[in-house]
Every structure is written in C-alpha cells, then in structure tokens.
Fold:
Amino acid sequence: MFNSVKRIALATSVSIAALSTAAFANEEIVFSEIEVTAVMGAAENANALDVFPEIVTDLEQAIASRVQTDSDASLPTIKIDIRQISLNGNPMLTSLEGFNEISGVVAIADDNNSIGAQSFAVNIAAYPGDQIVPEGFIAVQPSEDDFYNAMIAGFADTVLQRIDTINIK
Structure:
C-alpha cells in the first residue's frame, strides 16, 4: 500500500507545482494570524498526532509561506481545524504506512468585516491513479520520496485557491 501511495506522490508533486504557479494569493488580503489545531484525538483509535507530531506546525508554515502576514491584530485571521488524517479511511496509522487522506475546516474572519466570515471544508486524498477518490476529496499525487510534504502542500494550496476567491468589500 505504501508503495502505491509513494507512486501517487510523484504525480501529486507535479500537480501541486502546477497549482502553485497558477494560483497566486489575493495580494490585497493580509492576515494577522494563521492558527491550525487538530482535534483528531477525540476520534476512537486515532493516532495521527502521535505518528506525525509536527503536522500542525508544518501546515501553519505551509500556509504562511503562501499568504501575506502582518502583526496588526485587526487584520483577518485564518483558523484551521484538522478533523481527520487517515489511511484509506482508517484513523489508526503506523509510521510505515503514512496517510493518504487529510480533512479539515478553514475559517477566515476579520473584525472589520471587510471580507466577512467565511468557512469551508478542505479534503485532500492521495490514491493510485486507478483507485476512486472519495466524494468531496481533492486528489493529489505525492512523490515517491515525500508523500507527507505533498499532502501538506496540497492542503495549503487548496486553502490558497479559496482565499483567491474572497472579495474585499
């Protein structure tokens, strides 16, 4: 299974590179805070945070590298709640298998109401080319050597794409 995920990773990296060059952040929006939390511990038999303890920090950094930030607390914020990390729907991971699905909810808000409050789900999945991706998931193809970074980049790129659609009042 892991070899299949690794093969998919190569195609995902290529797809993500294409998305990264095509999608530029809405340069008019500057964010004061990017906060990622994970509440998967509440799920029975979920151990993703034990296997990937840096995933929250890595996702925060990936998103921060794609948007403009400033310390002005009156600027909009991005808050992400990672709700599931799984391997083919199973939340019990082993360090050898990795994961191929990550889901979360993104909330973007600001005190000045210049962009309003917005919330949307992000679901990323990596599967072999011949396998059906679950409904509501965006397929990414991680590289053979680095599926983890491809999944994080796919999630961050999807957040960036949604930010690009925000209209400033």
Observations:
- The CA atoms of residues 41 and 47 lie 7 Å apart.
- The longest strand covers residues 77-86.
- The beta strands are 30-31, 33-38, 68-69, 77-86, 101-109, 118-125, 138-139.
- The first helix runs from residue 2 to 22.
